[in-house]
Structures are given as C-alpha cells and as structure tokens.
Design a protein that fits this description.
The structure holds two protein chains of two kinds. By secondary structure, chain A is of the alpha/beta class. Chain A has a domain of 238 residues. Chain A contains ten helices and nine strands. In chain A, strands 1, 2, 3, 4, 5, 6, 7, 8 and 9 form a nine-stranded mixed sheet that branches. In chain A, helix 9 runs antiparallel to helix 10. In chain B, strands 1, 2, 3, 4, 5, 6, 7, 8 and 9 form a nine-stranded mixed sheet that branches. By secondary structure, chain B is an alpha/beta fold. The longest helix of chain B is centred in the C-terminal third of the chain and has 21 residues. Chain B is elongated, with a radius of gyration of 24 Å. Classes of the chains: A alpha/beta, B alpha/beta. At the A-B interface, helix 7 and helix 8 of A face helix 2 and helix 13 of B. Chain A: It catalyses: UDP-beta-L-arabinofuranose = UDP-beta-L-arabinopyranose. Chain A: One of its GO terms (cellular component) is cytosol. Chain A: Its EC number is 5.4.99.30.
C-alpha cells in the first residue's frame, strides 16, 4: 500500500544542491497547502507560482518561502498580445513560469503531489534525485540493460561500446507517481480503484527515435538546453482539448532532443499523487485528443529536422511549420497551435535575450 | 458561423458508414481514397477486410500510409495464453562438469520441465548430474553425429547451448548459464525465473511507443495517458532477456576496475526494448519463442581468444543484436528486465582482460553495423533475415577483421543446419 511520507519524516539534505540555479514552478488554482509537506526539501529554493483562473483570488503562500507569483493580469501585462499563447483555465499555463525564470534548471510539480516513501519507509527527496538525473549523462544511442549506468552500484554491461560510454547531456528528467497513476479517462473509468504501488528502482534513458508520453506532474529540465521547447500548448478555456499539454510538449521535446543529441531520462524519483481527477470531466477534455493522437504520433515519429536547425528555437519554429503543413488538415486547431508555437518562441526570445543574468525576477 | 460540410465530405462520411457494402475501391481517385482511409481509421472501422480492400487498389500512397502508421494484419491473436509445461525446454550449456549444486538449487523450479543439457565438446571430464530430472544429455559424439564433425566447431565453449536450441522440439526455450542460481526478490521469495520468462513471452510487447509505467500488462499497471490506443494491443514478444544479481554481466575492464562491485539492486520491472533501439542482449539468462525466432539466435561470433568465462566471449552479444534487428524487421518484441538470477562469482576479470580484450574493441565496429543494417521487405522469416544479415556482414565487415568473415559463414551454416535439423530433431545417442 503506497502511503505519503508524513512531514516529520522528511529529512532535508545537508547542502541543497543548485539552490541558486534552480526554480520550482508550480501552477495552482486552489491553494498551496501541499508546500508544507515539501518544506524541508523546497525551502532553500526559489518558487515561481503561476496562478490560473480568477486573478482577483488571493493565493496564500506558506511563510518562509521565497517566491514570485504571477496571475492572469500579470501574464497579460508582461506579454501583451503575445499572452494569447498562454492557456487559461488549464495547468498548461505553468509554461509561463519557465519563460520568466532566470535560472538554468526548472522543477515543476502539481499541487496535489506529495512526498512519497521508498520501500524502506524513507521519505523521498524528489528534487535531489531529479538533480542527480540532470547532472549525470544520458545514453540514448544504445540501451543499457542495467538501466542508468551512472547510478551508484550500476555500470555499463558487457557489449556496450566504449565510445558511447561518455553519454550526452541530460535535458529532461521525467519522474513517476505512486498511488494515483497518470491514466487517461477511459482507463480511469475502467479501473477506478487501481493504484500504483510498484516502486521500480530505476532511472533509464529513453532511446533516440523513441517517443514517450511526458507527464508534467513531476518533471525537471535544463532550461538552457531545452527550455524553449517546453511549450505546453493551447488548452483549457476556449480550446477544443485539454490534458494534452504536457504530452504535446513531451513529443516536441523528444524530437528536438533526438535531433540535437540530448538525453531524456525517466523513472525515479517517485512522488505521491493524491488526487484522482473526475474521469468524466477528463473524458470530455481528452476526447478529441484520443483520436487526434493517432495522427499526431506518426507525425512526430516521421518528423525530420533539417541540419541547419542548430538551436532549440530554430528546431521549434521548424516544427511549428511542419505542424501547420501536416496537421492542419486534421483540425483547424493545429493551425492555431502552430501560430501559438511561433508566438511562444517570440515571447521567449523577448524575455530571454542572449546574455541575461541569473538573479531572481520579481513580480512587479 | 460554421461552414456546412461539402457534398464530397458528406459522401465520404456516408461511405465510411457503409463500408460493409463496398467490395471494390479501385475506381476512386487517389485523394478521395486517402481521405476515405483516414476517416475510416478515425471512425475505428479499419477491419482486416477493409484494409485488404484498400491494399487491393495497389495505390502507392495507401501503401506508404499503411507503412507510416505501422498498420499490420494480425495473423494470430496476441493474447496471454495458458502455456503447458510440455511446450517448454530448458537448455543448459555445461561448461563446467559438476552440475550437482546447480541442478539441485534449481530443482524446485526446473523439475517440472524437460531439460536439454549440452556438454561443451571441449570439456574432458564426465558430467555429474543429480537424479530426478527429465533430461536429455548431448555430448560431442551426438553433436558430431547430427551436424558432422566439420560443422561441430560451431558449438564449442559457451556456444554448445545453441545445439540444444537446434534439436529442441518445443515452442519455448529458456536458457541460463551453468554458474547462475535462483535469485531472491525484495521480499525474500525465490524468483521463479521460468514462470517470469513465460509471462514475458506470452504477453504482448510494446516496441513502438514507450510506456513510462513499464510493462502495461503486468499486475497493477497499465498504459499511461497519452499512449495511442492503436498501439495498445502490442506485438508478439519473441525474446525475453533477464538480469543478474551479484555478479552482473559487466565486461572485463569494468569488473577489473570495480573488483568488489556486485549488483544488489532488484529493479521490479519488465520493459520492451523500443523498436530500432539496440541493446547488448546477454545470453546468461534468456528465453525465446523458438518457433518464431529460433534461427536468429546465431552461434556466429567466435573471438580469437574465446575462453571459458563470459568475459572472454561476445557470441551472445552478437547473437542478441542479430535477434533484435530481426525482431524489429518482423515486427516482434524484445523484453528486458525481470527475472533476475543469482550469478555466482567465478573467474578473475583481470586475467580475462589480459587474455581477451579483442571483444571489447570489436564492439566499436559491431554496433554501428547493426544500427545501420536494413533488411529487404522480401525477408519475411527469421531464416531469410539471418541470410540477409550474413550477406551484409560479409560485405561491410568482412574485410575489417577475419572474425567477421567467419561469423558470416557461420551464420549461413547455421541457417542450413536449422533447415535440415531444426525442423525435425533427433534424440541423443546412448
């Protein structure tokens, strides 16, 4: 039986790694009570809160955290007309946090995710594990059957060519969830009681050329390496689709990482996901996505980026072009999405001119 | 204001609804045909009969769509099935003569099954085998009799186990090295490696899209949000590659550097190795569907200094890459992960390294070769595929190192043997 760790069990590390180089981005529409449980692990870090929904509501941030908070009014003010690319009434709005951050690394987590326990009962410091994943290389060109060779107690197996053992820089660390698993609506409806209790003690690199469903609940990435590709799309209010924001970002990110020779890891750390969303509401949101993904997946699987796309932004603009060319005929939504992808890059470049400093921004 | 659908669009929609009445699609112009195909897909009405209708039009665009979407006609249903014990052979290559403790430790798990023990032809001592097993033992004289003494060179050392694959009459083969014992899981229970391998082989594999919760067919797991529904039935799993606790399968340099490192991490997962991703598939603990991929496990790459420790071999790594390429081509799956076996300490990495480091160097050529090899559409069986790979090995690697030219030759010999012996096997001589 999976259970969350209780606050008293959580023991903070002696030296919080990367505390001045990592921002924690949290989208919220309700409250931030969950932060109390994460306090020992998160307190040393700067938070970027993206408040979705009614901007007149006051979201209380627990005392002692250093943060900047942005609501819809702030987003509109900062981006002007470009704010149209940021979703409203959907946690996809979190990508605004990635854009305004001035740090090298981002960790994003949902407000219904708590500290999990490993099989020995110890509280899992998810942030620490994500940092380990990001700071050690990935191995996308050849699959290591003993999983992450850079973990303590592991290594490359016999037959793994030495020329590939240096690995490549890790751009994304995708964590998993105990308790409520990240199922789609049909699966939730069929298996309402299923809980993920299996703790799989592994981190592995997803091979080059293989796509995966990236969940945004427990995700960390190197903003300098891949940030501009982490656009979470147009979801929520006024859009025909929801719950595909992180999926969309994941497919774009993987294609670009494969092209640029960057790595994506999945596996540890686990968090404890406490809230199961309403499957009927989810079905309505995902419905179109379930059909569209049958076309979207082959699109990404066959996407080829030209050699002169040497930066993430160039790759992303090229992808946007391809989306417009090939997916518009699936639904006019993709035409809008392709435009929004371009707007996102424009906004990103405006807010992140080359040579920007690392100090925290302040929500004015 | 929404534009009303065109007459053409309404007609195509009507056609989708009435697909059961349509017997011939060839009069349709290309663009309408493609539109109809996509709408049929979207409506979930692409049955085998309908797919055949589209293929029968002979239009290139339809064909490339089918390829791109990886639509396949499923000939046999991929369902978890109940396997009978007599469909399984356990093949052990005896590289050491005293099998007493090995077999006694495995007795609780192996005693139900038929065992094929193949004695390394180079081994001088008599095999010591405890009572109470249903087994057949093959020795050098049996090997010579069945394949002829000139070809029997294929089966010396660790490769003796391939002879067992050749003469087996069963559908599933499970093979472990003779220095491996049953492992214990995180709860302390003995791992039934046979049962786990069979579970892996009889449940579908999912090579076309990565499931972040690992094997979606295991208890308590499923496909995650974002996993396309059309890919959820999976494909047949042809090979199951297990792992090792204690002495993991590292190469000699690694083990020599980390002399005391032992693998104690029990990772409770089975993963499908994604399509087109290659992995070093160790032969220490494997199982496979002999009927489907038997010929693709080839005893071909024999190192000049090959010896009696795993650090001195690469035959299984070569064989494993061959199998993966063949499986990718034939649309079959390869799984990796559980079950674990306990691999006992044996040998000295440093002396192995001094003696044989060729294997490590060769991998630098082997991997790019297998990553680039492409099989023609006409190769539709494992035998055909192996012949094509052998051809490519000869062309591309033959001149790099004589060991590759020999491997290509061995692969062709193996396919010939498989066709003559493998399809009708003979019992061992007394």
């Amino acid at each position: 039986m999976a259970e969350p760790a209780t606050a008293t069990q959580a023991a903070a590390p002696a030296v919080p790694q990367l505390k001045d180089e990592l921002d924690i981005v949290i989208p919220t529409i309700r409250n931030l009570d969950f932060l109390e449980m994460w306090r020992p692990f998160f307190e040393p870090y700067h938070l970027i809160i993206v408040q979705d929904g009614d901007p007149s509501k006051i979201i209380k941030v627990p005392d002692g955290f250093d943060y900047e908070l942005y609501n819809r009014n702030d987003i509109n003010r900062i981006l002007g007309p470009k704010a149209s690319c940021i979703s409203f009434k959907d946690s996809a709005c979190r990508c605004f946090g990635y854009m305004v951050s001035k740090k090298k690394y981002i960790y994003t987590i949902d407000d219904d995710c708590f500290v999990a326990k490993d099989p020995s009962g110890k509280a899992i410091n998810a942030l620490e594990q994500h940092i380990k994943n990001l700071l050690s290389p990935s191995t996308p060109f050849f699959f290591n059957t003993l999983y992450d060779p850079f973990r303590e107690g592991a290594d490359f197996v016999r037959g793994y060519p030495f020329s590939l053992r240096e690995g490549v820089p890790t751009a994304v660390s995708h964590g998993l969830w105990l308790n409520i698993p990240d199922y789609d609506a049909p699966t939730q409806l069929v298996k309402p009681l299923e809980r993920n209790t299996r703790y799989v003690d592994a981190v592995l690199t997803i091979p080059k050329g293989t796509l995966f469903p990236m969940c945004g609940m427990n995700l960390a990435f190197d903003r300098e390496l891949i940030g501009p590709a982490m656009y979470f799309g147009l979801m929520g209010d006024g859009q025909p689709i929801g719950r595909y924001d992180d999926m969309w970002a994941g497919w774009c990110v993987k294609v670009i990482c494969d092209h640029l020779g960057l790595g994506v890891k999945t596996g540890l750390p686990y968090i404890y996901h406490s809230k199961a969303s309403n499957p009927f509401v989810n079905l309505r949101k995902e419905y179109k996505g379930i059909f569209w993904q049958e076309e979207i997946i082959p699109f990404f699987q066959q996407s080829v980026l030209p050699k002169d796309c040497t930066t993430v932004q160039k790759c992303y603009i090229e992808l946007a072009k391809q989306v417009k060319e090939k997916l518009s005929k699936v639904d006019p939504y993709f035409d809008k999405l392709a435009d929004a992808m371009v707007t996102w890059i424009e906004a990103w470049d405006e807010l992140n001119p080359a040579g920007a400093s690392l100090a925290n921004g302040k929500a004015a | 204001m929404r534009t009303p659908p065109s007459l053409l669009s309404l007609t195509i929609d009507s056609a989708v609804i009435n697909l059961s009445n349509i017997t011939d699609l060839s009069p349709l112009p290309d663009h309408i045909l493609i539109d109809l195909f996509l709408r049929t897909l979207r409506a979930g009405k692409l049955t085998e009969r309908v797919l055949k209708l589209f293929i029968a039009t002979g239009k290139d665009e339809v064909h490339s769509l089918i390829q791109a979407l990886n639509i396949q006609v499923i000939v046999t249903p991929v369902l978890p099935t109940k396997i009978k014990d007599d469909e399984i052979d356990i093949v052990i290559g005896a590289v050491s003569s005293d099998m007493t403790s090995f077999l006694n430790e495995w007795r609780p798990i192996f005693s139900r099954f038929h065992l094929i023990i193949v004695k390394d032809p180079d081994l001088k001592e008599e095999l010591k085998i405890p009572e109470g097993f249903n087994l057949d033992v093959y020795t050098k004289s049996d090997i010579d009799r069945v394949v002829g003494s000139s070809t029997s060179i294929l089966f010396s050392g660790y490769s003796c186990r391939y002879f067992g694959y050749l003469v087996s009459l069963k559908k599933y083969i499970i093979s472990v090295d003779d220095d491996c014992l049953p492992a214990r899981d995180n709860k302390g229970f003995l791992v039934d490696a046979v049962a786990q391998h069979i579970t892996n082989l009889t449940n579908p594999a999912t090579p076309f899209f990565f499931n972040t919760l690992y094997d979606p067919f295991s208890e308590g797991a499923d496909f995650v949000r974002g996993y396309p529904f059309s890919l959820r039935s999976g494909v047949k799993c042809a090979l199951s590659c297990g792992l090792w606790l204690n002495l993991a399968d590292h190469d000699a340099p690694t083990q020599a550097l980390k002399t005391r490192q032992r693998n104690s991490r029990y990772v409770d997962a089975v993963i499908t190795v994604p399509a087109r991703a290659l992995a070093p598939i160790s032969g220490i603990n494997i199982a496979f569907d002999r009927e489907v991929v038997g010929p693709a496990l080839v005893p071909a790459l024999r190192l000049a200094g090959e010896g009696k420790f795993r650090w001195e071999t690469m035959e299984d790594i070569w064989s494993g890459m061959c199998v993966k390429v063949v499986c990718d081509h034939l649309g079959l799956g390869v799984k990796s992960g559980l079950p674990y076996v306990w691999r006992t300490d044996r040998g000295d990495a440093i002396s192995s390294l001094k003696k044989e480091w060729e294997g490590v160097k060769l991998m630098e050529e082997v991997v790019p070769f297998f990553q680039s090899v492409r099989l023609p559409r006409t190769a539709t069986t494992a035998e055909d595929c192996v012949v094509e790979v052998a051809k490519a090995v000869k062309e591309q690697l033959g001149s790099t190192d004589p060991v590759f030219a020999r491997a290509a030759g061995a692969m062709l010999d193996w396919v010939k043997l498989w066709k003559s012996v493998g399809s009708s096997s003979s019992p061992p001589g007394v």
